Amino acid sequence: MEGTIKRHWEYLCNHNKEKTKILGDKNIDCKCEDSENKFDFSVMSYNILSQNLLEDNSHLYRHCRRPVLHWSFRFPNILKEIKHFDADVLCLQEVQEDHYGTEIRPSLESLGYHCEYKIRTGRKPDGCAICFKHSKFSLLSVNPVEFYRPDVPLLDRDNVGLVLLLQPKIASGASPAICIANTHLLYNPRRGDIKLTQLAMLLAEISSVAHQKDGSFCPIVMCGDFNSVPGSPLYSFIKEGKLNYEGLAIGKVSGQEQSSRGQRILSIPIWPPNLGISQNCVYEVQQVPKVEKTDSDQTQTQLDKTEVLVTAEKLSSNLQHHFSLSSVYSHYFPDTGIPEVTTCHSRSAITVDYIFYSAEKEDVAGQPGAEVALVGGLKLLGRLSLLTEQDLWTVNGLPNENNSSDHLPLLAKFRLEL
Ligand code: KL2
User: Fold this and answer.
1) CA separation for the pair 216, 359 (Å, rounded)
2) Nearest residue CA, atom 9 of ligand 1?
3) How confident is the model over 100-125, as pLDDT tens digits?
4) Which residues approach ligand 1 with their CB closer than 6 A?
5) Residue (of 142, 138, 141) closest to 168 by Cα position
6) Neighbours of 303 (CB within 10 A)
7) Considering the domain boundaries, does residue 307 fall inside one?
8) Looking at ligand 1, which atom is closest to the CA of residue 184?
9) CB-based contact 406:386 (threshold 8 Å)
10) Ligand 1 probe mutation, 53, 62, 128, 191, most atoms within 8 A of CB
11) Does residue 180 belong to any structural domain of this protein?
């Protein structure tokens, strides 16, 4: 019989610049000042390991006792975990379609969740789900994103994303909507060109969904398995809002592997103009040729002035996005400097899963660099602590008797000040 791992809530009360740790894994209320006009909610990001992928990559799970790998053993544990943590929003990856229909969705619905699902394109039958508590939110819009594009040869992979716009249910007054995004980016460590383009497509969709009438953006939470490690160029791009990728090898983008032998350098631009996404990661205004009827009933096509700008942009190796995004986790234990891990199996133990969020101004003060648009801010109240690789090998790695995915769930509590 294996032992169990201990994870505790870390409470982060930024207003007094003190970090408070409270042991125990129960949802104790944060000791932050209570404010009247607030909306608190929790978010879980969890790659639950689809049974198909487990079986396709069985060499990764040779350290596991056979019975713990059966779906009939794993699912009750996963459900127990979800029920225990009781998050208001779940962003799940590797949700297998048949299990979703027969077990996952019905179980989560009976726990009070509304569920939305986007299956991957192609032949692998898994996808991303976002589920939220009826009692906390109403659904404003559902926006699936397919990263496969038959008209863009680069984009021949079947990964997807899902972006929801949710309306907080609050007793008094109005609240802005909250944009929740979930994705599972391409695994292939060598194809950073595809990963960056998939990320740009997700950011473009988030921009369009989170965009408010006054030109600002509502608060954003972006979760998922990004198949990229902390400090990698892809990770830095998310956090800093800009990336100069000149001379960068495609195998260096995600930081999953060290070697970049024989690897191509990212082309400038990374993706072709017909993708319709700018270097700022927003959808480009449609380049529809103006059709003007002349007196002689001939049609004349004129190209828009913006065409010139698009051409100039092509020469630059700079990517940007408009949000200032912070990571819920800091990726290293402060006392020892040992890395946190979110996934652990026989080939690797690294962080690839994240919860990013648009932080309140004070959390990002002094952040240099990119021009940042006005984005609604969230305060991070707390997070469920992660573990080291060593911690996980004391319970035989993942999955094990009690933890039934090869990833750990990530969990954060946020406050929206109204
Ligand atoms: O790393 V993952 O696991 O985020 O936990 O994302 C992918 C990998 C997932 C979806 O494609 O399947 C796993 N070697 C190791 N793992 C792989 C491989 C592979 N060749 N292919 C897919 N996965």
Assistant:
1) 14
2) 187
3) 999 999 999 999 999 999 999 999 99
4) 47, 53, 57, 60, 187, 225, 227, 343, 352, 406
5) 138
6) 11
7) no
8) 4
9) no
10) 53
11) yes
Q: Which of 54, 57, 408 to mutate to test the pocket of ligand 1 (most atoms within 8 A of CB)?
A: 57
Residue type, 348: S
Q: Whose CA is nearest to atom 11 of ligand 1?
A: 187
Among 227, 147, 245, 244, smallest CA distance to 189 is for 227
Residue 301 lies in a domain: no
Mean pLDDT of 227-250: 98
Residues 6+ apart with CB under 8 A from 72: none
**For ligand 1, atom 2: residue with the closest CA:** 187
Q: What is the pLDDT of residues 262-295, one digit of tens each?
A: 789 999 999 999 999 999 999 998 555 544 444 4
Residue 408 DSSP symbol: P
> Is pTM beyond 0.85 here?
yes
Q: What angle do CA 167, 136, 413 make, to 5 degrees?
A: 100
**Nearest-CA residue for atom 14 of ligand 1:** 57
Task: Give the domain CATH number at 395.
Answer: 3.60.10.10
Phi, psi (degrees; rounded to nearest 5) at 393: -75, -20
193 within 8 A of 250, measured Cβ to Cβ:
yes
Q: How many domains, in total, are found in the chain?
A: 1
For every residue of 89-119, DSSP letters joined together read EEEEEEEEHHHIIIIIHHHHHHTTEEEEEEE
Rounded to the nearest angstrom, the distance between the alpha carbon of 242 and the centre of ligand 1 is: 27
